[in-house]
Specification:
The chain is α+β, with helices and mostly antiparallel strands. The chain is 26% helix and 21% strand. Strands 1-9-8 form a three-stranded antiparallel β-sheet, with no helix packed on it. About 5% of the residues have low confidence.
């Protein structure tokens, strides 16, 4: 013989199941809302968010070299520029689509001819601006044979960008390479994700 607590009428049992199901659904919605808000606003327990960015040591960055890193899931290239590279940029500026970087995604403080905090260091997101394809670095020496000053080439469509990440005219891409938020607290350190 079963105890009386198990002898619940079927209608009342359905009510219990409905209440339990609604409570579980409410818990699921609350957990989903927490996850979404944490992703948008940042988790308060996350130490990386508190520090305000990622520090990168650039003491080993030689002039004419490119340092490749990944930040927030995107490839970032840090280019050590020489005075000759900066002169080459100036020589080809009349062939650029947006030489003054008016249509570019970059910090306002870096809206200058060299598009950076310091002329000798360029920081760009290493993805083409039309299809987000990877880029190839073309040093000025290799590009001289082809009649341009060197820089970056989109691997998908072949769009060319100068040594400051500005797109040349008559290319598939119409925007300059993106410059992320960063600052240079010293000549040996760069902090990504912080405004200048």
């Amino acid at each position: 013989m079963m105890p009386e607590s198990f002898n619940v009428p079927p209608d009342q049992r359905r009510i219990y199941y409905r209440v339990a199901l609604k409570m579980l659904a409410l818990l699921g919605v609350a957990m989903l809302a927490y996850v979404m808000l944490s992703a948008v606003l940042g988790d308060p327990d996350d130490d990386a968010g508190q520090s305000g960015g990622r520090s990168v040591d650039i003491s080993d960055l030689a002039p004419g070299e490119v340092k490749a890193i990944t930040w927030e899931g995107r490839p970032i290239w840090i280019v050590g520029r020489t005075p000759d590279m900066l002169e080459a940029d100036a020589a080809f500026s009349d062939q650029l689509y947006d030489a003054d970087s008016r249509l570019s995604r970059q910090p306002r403080d870096y809206r200058n001819p060299h598009r950076s905090a310091a002329p000798e260091v360029l920081v760009v997101v290493a993805l083409g601006t039309d299809l987000a394809c990877e880029l190839t670095w073309v040093p000025p020496e290799a590009a001289a044979e082809e009649g341009w000053g060197g820089g970056f080439v989109d691997r998908c469509r072949g769009s060319r960008y100068d040594l400051s990440g500005r797109v040349y005219r008559d290319q598939q891409a119409r925007r300059n390479l993106e410059v992320p938020n960063y600052r240079l607290p010293s000549t040996n350190q760069l902090i990504l994700g912080q405004t200048p």
